[in-house]
Specification:
alpha/beta, TIM Barrel
Length: 225
């Protein structure tokens, strides 16, 4: 099982690395569902750890339909930080009609270099039918190698397993990274589905399940067993 852990600071990154996580998603402000961290923090984690790192590029929590100016600012952030030895970025945008914002992805294509992209849970704002169409769109962008999803926000992750399996098959070779509700109860259900062998974990590996508390190395290791 591939395990990605949400990290908010250097201490989180070091604990995740020592506990055997495969990758971290670095964010700030989890009270706003995860925003872009400071450039200095990204640089520090790159210097002091060796764990694979993807960085959230998201400047506000007012939805996923972005103006041209907002898209340009995210592109400028990528340009400014693309020299760092990170694996890639976590980002995504939608149109008002409920589809992938391809203009945003088109703007990223010439600046992304060899970095990879996780299309984040903006994906979950789409209906199941829209998600299937969105997968086909994302497959046209070689730098998008991961889709982070719980299957949708309409119902709990555990009720979306058949849909997630279908998406994973449709998305290949893009990895479907299951997140948004992964916990010790859901984990065995995911283990039983060969197509769903990559998970994204947040509060489930925090002490007392709270993002204000440190990451628990033991909790990460429990998911690796």
């Amino acid at each position: 099982m591939f395990i990605e852990v949400i990290a908010q600071n250097l201490a989180d990154a070091k604990i995740a690395e020592s506990a055997g996580a495969n990758r971290i998603e670095l964010v700030a402000n989890m009270s706003e569902d995860g925003l872009t961290p400071s450039e200095s923090l990204v640089a520090t984690i790159c210097k002091e750890t060796k764990i694979a790192l993807r960085v959230m590029v998201r400047f506000h929590n007012q939805g996923f339909i972005y103006t041209q100016d907002e898209c340009e600012k995210m592109c400028q952030w990528i340009i400014a930080n693309n020299h760092l030895p990170i694996e890639g970025y976590v980002l995504g945008g939608l149109t008002e009609t409920g589809m992938i914002d391809t203009q945003f992805l088109d703007a990223i294509a010439p600046i992304i270099g060899e970095k990879k992209v996780t299309f984040h849970r903006a994906f979950d704002r789409l209906t199941w039918g829209q998600q299937e169409q969105a997968v086909l769109v994302l497959k046209k962008y070689p730098f998008v190698d991961t889709i982070l999803t719980s299957g949708g926000i309409q119902q709990p992750l555990a009720k979306n397993l058949e849909h997630l399996k279908k998406l994973a098959v449709l998305a290949a070779p893009i990895t479907l990274l299951v997140g948004g509700g992964v916990n010790e109860q859901v984990f065995p259900l995911l283990q039983a589905v060969p197509e769903l062998q990559a998970i994204h974990i947040g509060s489930a590996v925090r002490e007392h399940g709270d993002f204000h508390n440190p990451i628990s190395a033991r909790a990460i290791q429990n998911f690796k067993q």
